[in-house]
Each structure stands twice: as C-alpha cells, then as structure tokens.
Automatic annotation (TrEMBL):
GO biological process, one term: lipid metabolic process
Name of the protein in its database record: Phosphatidylinositol-specific phospholipase C X domain-containing protein
InterPro entries listed in its UniProt record: PI-PLC_domain, PLC-like_Pdiesterase_TIM-brl, PLipase_C_PInositol-sp_X_dom
Protein's organism: Cotesia glomerata
GO molecular function: phosphoric diester hydrolase activity
Length: 291
C-alpha cells in the first residue's frame, strides 16, 4: 500500500556533484527506467502539490568554475541540475541598477537572473509536464536602485510571459502548473509579490566546527522523522542539508565527507559513507522511510 502524505516536503541538498568531476562514493546504480529529468510527468494531473516531495539545491547559482572554493556549492549548471532531478532552486539575488544579479552573500556569481531563468525556460520547453519551484531571497542591501525588488520581479514576470506563477497554493494540483515556475519567498525580501509558505524549516547552517557536524545530521534526521508521524502539525517541511563552510572545509567537502578522519567518536549510523548527501540517501533506503 502506498502512503500519500498530506504535506509538501522539500529537501535542500548542500551540493550536487557531476559524474565527470567525480563523486565519492560512486553514484548508486539506477533502474534503466528511472528518469530524473521527467519524474513529475508520470504523475496524474490531479495529484496535489501537498502530497509531493521535491529536491532542491542550496545556493543553486553558485556553480561557476572561477568561484572561490568556499563560495561554490554546486558543480552543475541550472539546466543540468534540473535534468538531474532538482525541482527547487535557491535563488539569491542582489538588486543592482534595477536588475537582479546572482549573489552568494558578498560574492557576485558572475551570472544574471535573466540567464538562469532562460535555462529553466529551456528545460521546461523540453519537459512541459514538469514544474520548478523558485525560492527568491534578497541577498545584501539594494545598490543604486530606485525600484523595489517586487517591482523589478514583476518586470521579469512580464518579460517571461506565462512562465511564472507568483501566487499559488500547496493544495493546487500538478495539472494546474505543469511547465511553470512557481515563485516562493525565501527568508529575506519579496514580501507580498511571491507565495509565502508556512513551513517548518530546519536550516541549522552555522555548525561550522567540524566535530559539530554530527549535530547537524541529527537536526536533519529529526525533522525528516517528524514527517513520518501521523500527527504532523505543519503542511510544509523544508530540510536543509547545508552547513556554513569553515576555513578548512568547503561546502562541497562538508556535503560529501562529514567527519574529521581523526575523529572516531561518532554516534551516527553511517550506512556507507560520511557525506551528508549520502547519509540522506542511506536514510531513504530504509523501507519505512521511503517517500
């Protein structure tokens, strides 16, 4: 019997690596019929968003080859992320000269919001039965602007006609929004011009000290376990696997290697690797924890 959950679940990966650059450990073998680029296409139009689990990427635009290793969070372009199954994008924009440029804190990522939207648009043209959630977050202060971020966002909505949905509900169905970008509000900015989701969020990202990373995993696991409880109090859950990078460890190293090699006091059940992304994979391999 398949259990249908009545809450929207979003899992934000800290890093998505490329098979070309190499992942550790090797990616699990998938069924020949497994298509990460079109998995929503297989679901009926009547399926509600509140019954789905979406996978997202942390600071989705931070993938450029020239980025500092402590800024870079992804190996794959936006298009490649979507092809790999990502359906939630963490869009951190800075309003500069009345346009959006992509940032990660103080760091300009060398790409504009327009360019990223075009990548998503191209993906949806190839896969019109899919959809993408885009969390909009204002990074840093506005620079040399006389227009608000909501005003500028509406200009983009007009420019990319019929692509964006700025107000929607988790009780909407897939059939209502196939081929669209659903806009949602991050934790800063865009109040009133994007959908605010009242979710329970685990984003304990400041556990930078290497030996405290296991605390982060326990926070991840606790929220994930709550989703499987019958008396859930929230309609939406967002679980971030990311942690702020430290001087000695980059975001991608934290995602793929959780423990200090010299530290052997772990109380975490490490299924087959130490990386947080792989720990989450191991979690879902449990039969009772499959979404």
């Amino acid at each position: 019997m398949i259990k249908i959950f009545k809450s929207l679940r979003i899992l934000i990966l800290s890093s998505l690596c490329s098979p070309i650059l190499g992942c550790y450990p090797p990616e699990p073998i998938r069924s020949p019929n497994s298509r990460t680029d079109k998995y929503l296409s297989k679901l009926p139009d009547s399926r509600k968003l509140s019954t789905l689990t979406f996978i997202g990427s942390h600071s989705s635009a931070a993938y450029g080859e020239d980025l500092n290793e402590h800024v870079k969070t992804q190996d794959l372009s936006i298009f490649a992320q979507l092809e790999s199954g990502i359906r939630v994008l963490d869009m951190r924009v800075r309003l500069t000269n009345n346009t959006f440029v992509m940032h990660h804190y103080y760091f300009h990522l060398g790409i504009t919001f327009d360019e990223l939207v075009i990548e998503v648009q191209n993906f949806l043209k190839n896969h019109p039965q899919e959809l993408v959630l885009m969390f909009m977050k204002e990074e840093l202060d506005e620079r040399k602007n006389h227009k608000s971020n909501c005003y500028v966002l509406k200009q983009y909505i007009t420019k990319f006609r019929d692509l964006f949905v700025d107000h929607w509900s988790i009780d909407d169905t897939l059939g209502q929004h196939r081929g669209k970008i659903l806009l949602a509000r991050g934790n800063v900015g865009f109040q009133g011009c994007t959908q605010s989701l009242h979710c329970k969020i685990q984003n304990d990202h400041r556990k930078s000290h290497w030996k405290l990373n296991e605390h982060k995993w326990q926070a991840i696991k606790a929220l994930q376990d709550e989703i499987f409880q019958t008396d859930r109090k929230f309609q939406c859950y967002i679980n971030f696997l990311s942690i702020s990078s430290s001087v000695s460890k980059t975001p991608r190293e934290i995602a793929r290697s959780m423990r200090d090699p010299n530290f052997r006091g772990s109380v975490v059940d490490l299924t087959f690797t130490d990386g947080m992304v792989e720990l989450m994979t191991g979690y879902f391999l449990q039969k009772v924890k499959t979404l």
